[in-house]
Amino acid sequence: MNLKLLYLLGRFGPLTAWSGAGVLLAVGVSIAAVGVRAVAWPLFIAGALVALLLQYVAHPINDIVDYEVDVKANIQGTGRDKTLISGLATARDLKAVAIGVVALCVVLSAAVIYYRPLAFWFGIVGFAAVAAYNLPPLRLSYHPFSEPLMGFPTCLAIVVGLSYVATNQLLVFAVPVAILAGFMIVSVHVTYFAMDVQSDLWGGKNSTVAKFPRIYWSTFWPALGFVYSVIVAILSTPVFFASTVLFVAMVFMGINVDEIRARYMTHVSSLTRAEQFETARGNPPRFTMDTWNRASAAMRLTLVQQVKVAILHGVVLSILIAVLL
């Protein structure tokens, strides 16, 4: 198997921001609950590998499912690697990777469940999320509101589930931590869809941003996360004000993304009827395509910063929880 392919499929920015940050938060919660020495580290590491690998395996599956949409997207201009588009891999290669990784996840999950039976239910959430997001009959990525439907359950499964595996306790305190992580990753996820909204429309992918384009989704979700972080900080512990500060940064970045998208929409609405028709069919005039390429590339720059903030959130909040609580 091509090692470059395996590396590129990792997409370590979103992988670290989502599952990686969740694993770190589970570490912080577990240490705060029972101390470093009482954590069942071998079981925790096995469970963490499952969480990371389940997100990893979603990438080759998504590449296969989204091929018809991806060929219309500004992949190169937004600095991404799509191995089917570049020709580095075939659909058969990606299926082989997916089958191998899923098999490894099943083996690791079985070992964890043997010692922590309730981990079965948290694992089911992870496996179901990969299938529901990408595959029929649900194929949630092609429908509105897939971001919260994926973000919150998976973050709860990672943070609450891994802290249970580590401590053999269901820790109530892990729930608000997981919800904060959920708001953070949903804020990033909607920007991914914003960056590809035009090509998604051309390919029939009816994402939240494509279905409701006039709403500032990249601003809405971090603003909601900001409100939630303030509430839990007041009701629970001031440690959560660290999340508040980072959600403020996410709000301003979200505004930038939504403004770029709004300007592009204004441009499209100014086209003639014939030009709008061709754009809707995926055969836009050259100047419209150039405008979309510039808009998507500009959103990508902000998205990279959002990913960094999501990773920073996992690191900072985990340390504060472990040290101060």
What do you see in this structure?
It contains 15 helices and no strands. It is mainly α and 325 residues long. The chain has one domain (3-324). The longest helix is centred in the C-terminal third of the chain and has 39 residues, at 286-324. The model has no long low-confidence stretch (mean pLDDT 94).
Radius of gyration: 20 Å
Main sheet summary: none
**Category by helix and strand content:** mainly alpha
Q: Which percent band covers the strand fraction?
A: under 5%
Query: N-to-C terminal Cα separation, in Å?
Result: 45 Å
Task: Determine the fraction of residues in helical runs and give it as a percent range.
Answer: over 70%
Please tally the β strands and state the result: 0
Instruction: Name the helix and strand elements from N-terminus to C-terminus, one letter apiece.
Output: HHHHHHHHHHHHHHH
Domains (count): 1
Overall, the morphology is: globular
What's the pLDDT, averaged over the residues? 94
Low-confidence stretches: none
Compute the number of helices.
15
